[in-house]
Write a structure and sequence with these properties.
mainly alpha, two-stranded antiparallel sheet, 20 helices, globular
Length: about 475
Amino acid sequence: MKNLLFVVLFVFSAVLITSTKNYAQEVQHNKVVQEQTVEHSGTNATEENAVEEEHHVLPSAYMVIPFVVLLLMIATGPLFYQHFWEKNYPAVSLVLGVFVAGYYLLYLKDFHDFIHTTAEYISFIALLSSLFVASGGILIKIDRKSTPMLNVVLLFIGAILSNFIGTTGASMVLIRPYLRVNKGRLKPYHVIFFIFLISNIGGALTPIGDPPLFMGYLKGVSFFWVIEHIWYAWLGVVVLILAIFYLYDVRNKEVAEVSQNFSGKVEFRGMRSIGFLIIILLAVFIDPNVMPWVPNLMPFPIGIREMIMFAVVYFSYKYADKEALKGNEFEWEPIREVAWLFIGIFWTMIPALQLIAHEAHVYGPQLDAGFFYWATGSLSGVLDNTPTYVNFFSAAFGKFGLDPGNLQHVLIFEEKHALYLEAISMGAVFFGAMTYIGNGPNFMVKSITESYGLKMPSFFAYVYKYSLIILIPVFTLVWYVLFYGKG
């Protein structure tokens, strides 16, 4: 199997290098065309439309099949063919992803969408891996008796913290101490509510909180717009879910397997790793769209930001507090699993996202804010919520004849059509909690928990036992109060 992976990666790397070169030539050609059309204004619109169509040829609907197959195998593999899946999931994910990528590169000659998606994946895995390793060097021990109220406080603090260090950062820093404090009475619902609140919903107040909101910030949405317009919905949802969690936890009568002589102290190790976390958060803003002086390395699918983050992976592990790593039972398997599965998810979801975006643009004028809330939300549960946000963000602009690439239009949109931006923002962040793959930290939290020794529900069990019966009623209430019949 390792030989197969090596062959696939080698062949695909050769295709990628050639495609990157072709894409670079294409970008240069289009630049020349646009410069020429400035001198021939009569043909300007025609030329631009031709360029746009060349880069956005719709894929066949059949190309959604690899994405569906991958989702089904992620859901059923651990249940029905566990040995095969655990041994071969990297190959399955890569082969399905390469199949779709090959379709775009060799058949559609669409280098733009593939390279753009690959760049998003590299940014995604650079952020997750750097936060995962840096947080592994932070050891927090809470010497208190596990109680429902203590857990409510920890989850609420984590939900707030996720807005300052991101849902991924908060998840990685807090999941291990949260598991330890509940030792002896730990149940799957503890971790699932952790995913709901800290890995997803908590990060809805700032662009740092969750990647979809950061994409909105890069496109020109004001940094404090989100907290100004969403804080009340955030607070209501968080309080409701915490109340439901309390009802679950108060019924758990198992006694923690720890000494009854609690000191009440909170111990902390790993100040050096805190420094690495700060570097990661600062690196998030090293983007040509935010800081014009930052060099843009396109068409290469990696930038200065990602280079810094990958460097942090190496140095934060090398210089981490070894006792903290040992206390956290740090291992590489959780991030390895996320890296392999999400490369397949990112590549296979390209056709699905393009087809959805096309339909959203076609029917945009007929769609109200409630539709954008449910559509962005439901798709964010099974597709990565960042590109889903971007597609519906663009579709909402098209509904009002605005250009999402025009900063002035963005300011008009966030002021005059705030309801739509609220709907898209809440849908993308809140509904990421619906499945294990809705947001990057979800799967990582699951993997860390299982390496800790707790068996987590399967993909489908997570949905029908928890997210459908807990989240959907809460999200429906949000829709009814804020978006029903509006827009």
